[in-house]
Fold each of these.
Amino acid sequence: MAAADGLSFVFVFIFGTMITWWAVGILKWDKFVHDPFGPQARFLRLIFGILGGALFGFIAIVYVVAVQLLSTGA
């Protein structure tokens, strides 16, 4: 069961990272950084994507665990 939970978290994390990467793409980076197409700006987008994916994955896993706890009556 733990392996399935870990694998599902990895998939949710990757999905969340992709969604966050897509969502931060709409930002006008030239208002925040000097060179919006430079390596530092791209790295900043990567960090935002990873953090967003981790947050998305954490919220999804907490939701699933809460639903499991409610259904078992614990």
Amino acid sequence: MARFSKFLILLTVLALVFVGCGGDDDDATETTEAMDDTTETTEAMDDTTETTEAMDDTTETTEAMADEPEEPIVFASSLPLTGEFSGVGAKHKDGYEFCVEELNRLGGILGRQVEIVIEDNRSETETAVSQYERFINVVNADVLFGTFSSLLGYPTSSLAEQNGMVMGLPSSGAMRVWARGYENIFYFQQLPAELTGSSFVDLVNHYTETGVIDEPLETAAVVDADDFFASAIANGFKGAEFTVRGEGGAEDRQVSLAPGYVSDMGMELVYEETWPVGFTDWITLANAIAGAEPDFLAVAVTSVDELLSMLKALETVGFSPKMMYASQGTQSEVGEELGGIESGLLIHAVWAEEANWEGKLAGQPYTNEDFINNFTAAYGRSPDEDEAIPFALCQGMEQAILGTGGTDNAAMSEWLHSRQGDPVKTIMGDFVWGEDGLAEERAFLVNQWQDGELKLVYPVGEFDGTADMVFPKP
């Protein structure tokens, strides 16, 4: 441009010289026309320059947009981090957060990073419901992760269903949760709570046939907390009835569990009791159980604290049944706090260190052994099932996102329902769900405390490291 400007000035000077020298009119006209042509050329070049600069600006904007990362995928969960269920709630938080950490370490989901929003519902139903409302309407979470306990899961899963949101549930095993005909909730455990006792029927049959149980179990006691989950387990053992509340104008209906798993095991129910929320009179309850002298005792609790109180009270009154089951107790603190009085205790389980199932994460194989090793490295302690369950749930939701190519919840729900022949693969095994959202073709594991260690005692021979059950309970 600088050279062209100098050329223009030179032409202008020459034109003035010609005019000053009295050149003829034709020469002057030609000179003027040449100057006009030069002006038009200059204007055209200026227009070209502006166009080029505009194209450069557009290119820079496009490149900046391409460099800008996509919004993260957002998971959200309300958990009881304080209050009655805080022990399990805190571990669920670790399981969810560790899964998100592992996903991001492996590249995220569909090339997007993952975030999780977790809030403390203080073990209160109203707080949990309001938090999930906020996740849906304010946070705009892509996927909802369920909370702990049927008490909290029942109303919050209703909210998810009403809003067309998929919700994987890590607990909430009471049949009341699953008998409502919902389409968007999926259970990440083996069986509903009422069917827990079926695994103990199988266990008793096996160990009776092999001679480990060498004297008949004739009588049983069943005690439970006044809670959705605990009462559901107790009802299954006792063969009781429970009510499914009608929704949308439908009538309530009664469901019978008769004759019950105590009867299926060939025992007579000689004592039953339900304690209220906030119960503290454990010695009186333990004395009543001891007075009935049951061979088999089933204790359905909602928290580890209740179990610890029950076992300490039984120790105080000097009673130990031949066989004892509890609905909680796989947590490490049971062995750490009881000093051996937990020995022989049986607990149903959905996960065990010995069960090396192969799951998937970020489209890659991710085994139970990988989970144990990586979690231990990250947290400085071994995981238990209260961390494994939420991790497996997160695996399932991630596979639904990959399977549908996005976070459309209706598509995810349909995909999860269609897993027959192509299961969701987790560190807790393969999952296929029925229309009601309950897992199909699953059975509980059974663990037992033996000399301060938790051992897998049923099923026998399916996994390396299975131990024989200790009988009778020390």
